[in-house]
């Protein structure tokens, strides 16, 4: 035979594949891959689209996808670029102004917005304070929408008129919700929303006045990205860009965890895929030993024979991957259809990426798990045509497991982009597999002795396991992996949700009180205690600006658009504290024990970790602050993380007590007020007119609704993993079906009744399931220990309910096993024996 | 009779076993000319199949050499031997060795397709017609009786027009009547196509139809039949 060119080998592989497909041999492998790719594609789409939807939700906090903010109006070309990119534009101007009436004066935060505002989310308003609210719309020219607090403070009612600068506007509605208000609630005074058309008439905005201009943009991600790129390099020093990611820390935290969780679920699906592919590929290989030997006899070289089978699998894999991706895409469409009422109306389509990732995942899994058993086909000795007992030299187990692990690691790494998580999963899985596999093997071998005198059904059932203890251990490991994956997902879901819920307890602070004067501090605290038991301590607040780090001006150190940049652009709220506040944790350095001695060097300051990273701060750096016109120096004595999700007052910079004395100080606190007690807030604000009371219910409600969606997503993803796991379980059973049919037929031919066979099968799979469950329980604890500690930042404690897994495993795998192999019970013994 | 096509010189095969090395074949020599036919007979375990494997280049001897169509098989690596098999050798097995996933026609087409022959289908069809299975082309091996399966295997073996056909117990799995018809077919084709035939068999009647016969006993040649 001449050399076999690739194209002919390919054509041959294709023909063989078609013939094999017709014969039904490859269906299991195809099915396993199809399910695996479908599951990981669906989860990928689900995750990506949900993420998109949640991001969209998060854009509400900005009122837009992208915001260009500055203390002077945007340059005309900056606006022109956005319009040219096809983005929708809205304009907002914010400034502070005093609203004066006969009843008093109130510093207010005026927002003048055009009719396009907001671009994401909607305003909500009511006809009267505490009346039912409606969504949408905005104030017409000549009108103002105001927060109820302003009405209470100035004893106004809807229909009255107020002067904003030189313009008189009529109060037409009560403003109850501004989507973009929530993200920035620290320095707020009551809101007065007017139409942008009235701005000029107010005469407030003059050159030099403190005004914030916000240009809001909405559009397709690509257009936004290109706009962002074109504008960001030419930003004026007083301008910056914001998008939903940096728009809100609370959402960011919840999203980050949801993303990790969804990625975890994808990893699990991939793991299951690997198991299924490994099972069916090794069956594919074993069943082709004869064909391989024959082809070698017919003159194919080792490489050609191997190439032929590899090509067959590659073609099959590509087809299955494409079909699986399509199926996965359809599945998530159905899922979103089901969830229609619960989801935000606009869900981004998700693009091609999840489908491509699903396909790539399937192919890499195929390569990693199928190639090692396939490699054996290249080593089948041609002499096998004469002597059937000749088997190929088994591949080195390093090759088998190395390739599989490499493929898995690669996929995991790509999916999660989190090496820690990947290593925790891979390492935990590997250690668990080796340890437990060994234990299981020992257990099976000792069972052999125990069972010599047991009833026939037991000996038959166990015989199946004991005949190939290594295979039984492997199978048990595979099923164990499935149970482990499911348990892990269930466990993490419960754990994450609990943590989120605990972070946001029902009585999370829903009011912030700012600008409490030192003289009012004690009386305010007393009044507060009368109606709210859940008040945070009163923290002193001193506005101050960071000017120098180790004697160098900060502007030269920070990069544009970074956290540090934003922090040095404005006054920071500085505070001092004797104790580390709740929800804070030190990462470096030490918390101070007492006030600094009067004669020693500089006072210490504790800096929030992320800000410190952005400012490139390390312990011992000397910081200079400009506070009320004075220069104060301090030394970085510790770094700490802050739980921004907690709704407690949080601070970037905390000074050592006794170091900021003599500077103008106000106090800040947060407290919880049950719904329906709004009159008390009004009373409180009347008693302390200087104090700004800020309601964050709206933000909390938004956050809760996002958490509810995440919860739902998590539950559906769990369903998907469950389905994938079951499918893989059946694929695994299919792999042993031929032998079972033959054996079952033989036993029936020898006179065994159906009931005996069923009983034996139940015993076999029940035991297998129980062993798998035990493995899963132990493995699950091992992995969660690593995951909690290193990936999710949760505290770990044992989970006794995992001991149910052996029972669940016995029932699930026992049931599925008997069901999946029912063909072996129903086939006619005569026919089966003839065929074999 | 034509020139020498297959020769063995001092062929020995030793395999390691629990009780030390086990000699399966003892210094065996033979020579076959083109168109010749040779039967290898002997009791089970006498080394018949081992000898067949060595002669066909499926295995390598511990000592001695095999020359097939002028090629010293001992000097070739496995892939080179595979090429020799593809070009010069055909096989018929006791267990037929048909691929279950392929139908009768496709099984016969296989070696032709491997060779890239465009007329694979027509050629295979005519061979199946020649062995009397023209009506069973699309049947899968499972749907065929043992005799029919062996006829497919014979059609496949002759498809590539081999110089030497090795047959391992070609009638071993068949009843005597069917076995008789299979051996008729084998010898008819052998004659038609001038193929050299080497067969291992228990079947004395089949063995007697060969021009030459050797008997093996525990790896020793006990009854060489000179031409």
Structural descriptors:
heterodimer; A: 836 residues; alpha+beta; 5 domains; 6-stranded mixed beta barrel; 25 helices; elongated; B: 227 residues; alpha/beta; Rossmann fold; 6-stranded mixed β-sheet; 4-stranded antiparallel β-sheet; 7 helices; globular
Which word captures the global form of chain A?
elongated
Helical fraction of chain B equals 25-40%
Task: Count up the domains of chain B.
Answer: 1
Radius of gyration of chain A: 34 Å
Structural class of chain B: alpha/beta
Subcellular location (chain A): Cell membrane
Domain ABC3 transporter permease C-terminal (chain A): 264-373
Keywords (chain A): Cell membrane, Membrane, Transmembrane, Transmembrane helix
Organism (chain A): Pseudomonas alkylphenolica
Describe this structure in words.
The complex is a heterodimer of chains A (836) and B (227). With 836 residues, chain A is an alpha+beta fold. Chain A has five domains: 226 residues, no CATH class; 47 residues, no CATH class; 129 residues, no CATH class; 223 residues, no CATH class; 136 residues, no CATH class. Chain A is built from 25 helices and 22 strands. In chain A, strands 1, 2, 3, 4, 5, 6, 7, 8, 9, 10 and 11 form an eleven-stranded mixed beta sheet that branches. In chain A, strands 13-15-20-17-19-18 form a six-stranded mixed beta barrel. In chain A, a hairpin with a 2-residue loop joins strand 13 and strand 14. About 1% of the residues of chain A have low confidence. By secondary structure, chain B is an alpha/beta fold. Chain B has one domain: 3-Layer(aba) Sandwich (Rossmann fold). In chain B, 34% of the residues lie in helices and 28% in strands. Chain B contains seven helices and ten strands. Chain B has a six-stranded mixed beta sheet with strand order 6-7-8-3-9-10, with helices on both faces. A four-stranded antiparallel beta sheet of chain B has the order 2-1-4-5, covered by helices on one side. In chain B, helix 3 crosses helix 4. Chain A: It is a multi-pass membrane protein. Chain A: It comes from Pseudomonas alkylphenolica. Chain A: This is ABC transporter permease.
